[in-house]
Amino acid sequence: MNRALVAIVALSALSECALSKSWAIESPGSTIQGLVQKEDQQPAAKEKKAEKPKSGYLTSLLPGEETLDPFVPAEPLTTDDAKAIEARTLVVLGFAEEERRHLVSALELYEKAAKLWPESVSALRNAARMSFLLEQHDKGLEYARRALDRYPSDFVLLHEFGKHSASAGRREDAIESFEKASAIEGAAKSDPMRFLELQLLLAQLYEGTGNNEGVANAWSQVLNILDDPIRYPLEPTVRQRMLRRRVTYFERLARALNDQGKHEEALAVLEEGRQKIGGQARRLLLIESEVRVEQGKLEDALRLVEEYLAFKFQNPEALAHYEKVLAKLGRDKDLLAELEKLVERDRHNAELRQFYARKLIEAERFADAEEILRRPGTRSESLPLLFELYRKNDQPEKVLDVILEAFAGRSRFATRESRVATLAKIAEQLKEMSKDSDFVTKVADAARARVKDEDDPLGFRGKLIIADTAKQADLIDLSKEFYALALEDEPNNADVRIQLIAMLMNKELYEDVIKQAQEGAKQHPDDYRFVDRQASALQMLEKTDEAVALIEDYLNRVKKKDSTILVFDTLIRIYQMAERYDDAIKTCQRVINDFPDPKQSGLASYRMANCYLLKGDEEKAEESLVKLADAEPNTLLPFIEAAVNNDLGYIWADKGKHLDRAEEMVRRAIDIYERSGEGPNAAYLDSMGWVYFKKGNYKQALKYLKEASEMEEGQDAVIYDHLGDAHLQLKQRDDAKTAWEKAIKLYEEKDAERDADKLKALREKLKLLGQKDDASPGSAEKTSP
Fold first, then answer.
1. What pLDDT digit, counting tens, does each position of 351-364 carry?
2. What is the distance between the alpha carbons of residues 743 and 765, in angstroms, rounded to a whole number?
């Protein structure tokens, strides 16, 4: 065979291999195992590396062969044909890089193919798959979405898009994708493992949205797959784990039907479950009792829940249902007596004992509750209830005992997880207690009495807890006292001193901050935090030159360390606050020169753009932000990337240019910020609202601007200025007037002299509002977040 043809055939074979490549290295079965029982998940088997092809296998000449002439097609290739061929070649090369485990290189090739030939489903699909594998989820979702626009019936891609949308918190997108995948005919039979995982995820998503019809349908699909191993073959280990949990699926299906009012269908499901799961069927008694309550058959409901509890299934859910049934029967007074019987029958059930104790506390039978919670063998999971009991009974000494038992190493927990959960509950109780400054003072008095008590010392951790609780109660002198006591125990503890300094800084006690920072710097001369705090306090006292000298001395002494970047940032901020923008820009450039890695110097680059904006040089600010925005993916730290996208998007929107790109950038900023777990950012929502305003979509603008203005950090004059503009465009004159008046008030409270021009513009808007219904004022300049 002509070897040119051999090469073409081989290339085609590789291409087919790449196009049909398994979606992900990890099989759906392993994900299902994680959903079913994470602790039983088995480690994935290592893949065998592909052997490297022999160099020159297709291109070297065989003995007696002549040099091949270049292939010339009968008809000249069109530009699109050439792009398509090159894109296919890039996909094949990407597959080859994957086989060598060069995943980043593979992604780059797939992305080049997708850019060269945007209609290539193969390029988009592989770019999405590899992005997900490299945990670049936003990018992966975008490629997957583009591929689905061209091939909407791709079951595997719909499944992956839904799964990664769910993990990114995009619940509506996940549900829509899973629903489309579920509707594809024959999907369950052709890929039962993936279909099963899809239904498990979809059931959980529906449960989160309260869509009981969807929940019931998803669990029905799961049970159908488990019932027919011939038609729906699963991995044996997955099937076994699923079968062991089948009772849970029957419970959730029956509950979803019951919540829809389909009581007879729910009972039929429970009967089917009893027939199929044998000994575990007793767990279904609780759900059946719930159904009987909904049917009004209360005596049957009581009998069923008592039968359930007789099997020692005394979980909080069952006990709460038992209380509900007794209440509906008018037997509320019987609850404590019945619970006492259950406790005597099952003396080692901690959850039952705690439930009983809580009911005793509610009945103000404090001594009985304490006796139950302090019985021999009781573990420390009862401490939050004891805290509540002593707090209600005004016993500060005993509350202090609980605090010390929990946090000072005197506790005894069943598991590490229960320890974490219990301490988190007590931390919340302390936070709630801090609202009662009188009671906090009583606890502190009890603690102070123990400082010199050798038999029961308060200890370092006890002093810290009292200091922190007093801080939350805004009892600053009391907090300082206990921080000082803690530092007497551990004078070299830098973290504790930093906590004290943070409180002092927050209360604007700058002289105290300087004193504590100087003490910390003596003990820890290389710890940048003490220099940072002292310099910041000096700046707040308008001692800029002293602050700068302090930082420069530190930088000269410590030389080039990673921590010095943070000190440089403090220096930049000090210059900004002093409106010495040229000095700030020089310092930014100094950082960029000394730390060429953008992950280290990215913040300085962003600060430089911000300085240009503050000094009124919008052209240079925009130029700096564009350079940052065009950086390679993952070059900047996420919070800097979000800020860059927001600021540049806002600047473009304010100038009325590149509005589509501006929308993309601000949306990316919002996504990055929300994925960090911080929730919405008022400044970013305002930017999105302003983009929509400039695009003429005033309803969408109003939606984002209202959301921003309703946030605590959204009490900003510019946001209300924008909000007024949006209201006016929608002919909502009264709302516009209210928003602008609020903006004026916020400017006046902040710095009326500095914002004189903005105040003048707002007052002019209000004046015009009284003259014209169709007035369309411009916006005040927005300060960069």
1. 888 899 999 999 99
2. 12
